[in-house]
Amino acid sequence: MSTISREEVARLAGLARIDLTESELTRLAGELDVIVEAVATVSRVATDDVPATSHPLPLHNVFRPDVVTATLPVEEALAAAPAAEDGRFAVPQILEED
Amino acid sequence: MGDLTRLSAAALAERLAAGDVSSVEVTRAHLDRIAAVDPAVHAFLHVDAEGALATAADVDARRAAGEDLHPLAGVPIAIKDVVVTRGMPTTAGSRILEGWVPPYDATLVERIRAARLPILGKTNMDEFAMGSSTEHSAFGDTHNPWDLDRIPGGSGGGSAAAVAAYEAPLAIGTDTGGSIRQPAAVTGTVGVKPTYGGVSRYGLIAMASSLDQAGPVSRTVLDAALLHALVGGHDPRDSTSLPDPLPDVVGAARRGATGDLTGVRLGVVRELGGEGYQQGVRRRFEESLEVLQAAGAEVVEVSCPHFEYALAAYYLIMPSEASSNLARFDGMRYGLRVEPADGPVTAERVMAATRGAGFGDEVKRRVILGTYALSAGYYDAYYGSAQKVRTLVQRDFAAAFEQADVLVSPTAPTTAFRLGEKLDDPMAMYLNDVATIPANLAGVPGISVPNGLDEGLPVGFQVLAPAKADDRLYRVAAALEARLEERWGGPLLAQAPELEVTR
Predict the structure, then answer these.
(1) Interface test with B, best of A15, A18, A64 (most B CBs within 10 A)
(2) Is residue B337 part of a domain?
(3) CATH code at B43?
(4) Kind of pairing, strands B77-80 and B119-123?
(5) Distance, CA of B408 to CA of B447 (rounded, Å)
(6) Would you say the ipTM is above 0.90?
(7) Partners of B448 in the beta sheet?
(8) pLDDT mean over B380-384
């Protein structure tokens, strides 16, 4: 049974902000279906009594002293930007309406 | 003096310290070798001859002035292109970062520069470290020096091929599910994934933050230890960096090289062998066990029943974390920006067009898989279950390490396959990492050391140790290396066919 349809891939690609071509959508739907079926085996052993682990080793939150430290100079931070203006990143229009 | 590129890093360090050779000579020899063989191997995405020679000349001047230098000062190194290097292009094998020159160094690069190792360049890799063959690089395949028609493993195929082809004595790799160890296995080289948090991740372009770990790539176990000791240890800029001091990995490698493993208990993991493993790989593994027993080690069988689910858990956790980490590639602050072909040019549409054009197939596949696993309605069934499997895998390791000091298995189920052979079958590609993934899920360290050939292609032997006991890897691997090299009459790589040299 197919779990990931072409439409579902299109919806996910929208969420992930990736433009896909028609042929990519078709191919990914087939591939992801196989992969999802294989990885779904995790539910077989993941019973309620097993706690989840998010990290390999037990860790405590780490803080540093709240003091100002050196940062990148503005020109270096902007040097690789596709567009910059007045010491800031220049980005396309954020909202659809004008 | 012979060919300087054939010497180990430790041997080069000795000659440099003794004044028998200069770093400029050593560095030039490696740059010449790169010029001669890299057109065929394609291990490098970027070569920095000028920068490497400048560092080398500086080391030579300092040595002449009697300055106290790091033991590896003047020994050249290559760095996987997923590690940021100030002033040197860093692409992570992706079009989306083509031409990007980072404004800062990763911590491990800072340490390499402070110790004055000439950086030869950046090595090829699967895009964002996603793959097991380096075929997912946006900038072309790397070829296995043992057979140019075959894969060098992945994702760090460039680093492994560079040391195997004598283009560098040392390299840096990163290992999220096997990307240091599997390439080492298929190229007849040594690769180590340290304990999670043992080497700083600051300045690594992240794929899956809870799994990623940088480590050494080399031709000998001792060289890996020397590099591990240089780049490892606490870094306040990585909040997951271990505060503990690094174990004495160099001492352990030297101790292991005596070939005595009396009293060491080796646990053979029942689930990491047998069916699905190439016959020649299994045979070499059995032979290595006999060699280790002759060295005094005790062999016990251990069972890790949940390792069967590790691959599935990994292919949920890794894409989930990757889909989140790769959100930073939005075409706004660095890298590629593509405007949509038609319609309004809004930020959202620019992001989608940029990512559609800038990401390759495997990256798209994993980001969308991760987005699916994390999306409403599926989160508990997929990501939540995978995290529970992670607990079960860790419990398996804990139980196994009660019975054994280290665990052992083949590193990869097969030897190097042909380029293109598994490119259209993602699941077949993913199975290459079946023996290496459990260590990443549990954060434990692992090494791959060459243990023979099957039909002329290298096979790797994996050793896994409990977290923070990385020294055990080096002791056992060095003992195996010493005993096997005695049998072979030299390193395994000496049996590799000579590469044709381009002049």
Answers:
(1) A18
(2) no
(3) 3.90.1300.10
(4) parallel
(5) 10
(6) yes
(7) B191, B462
(8) 92
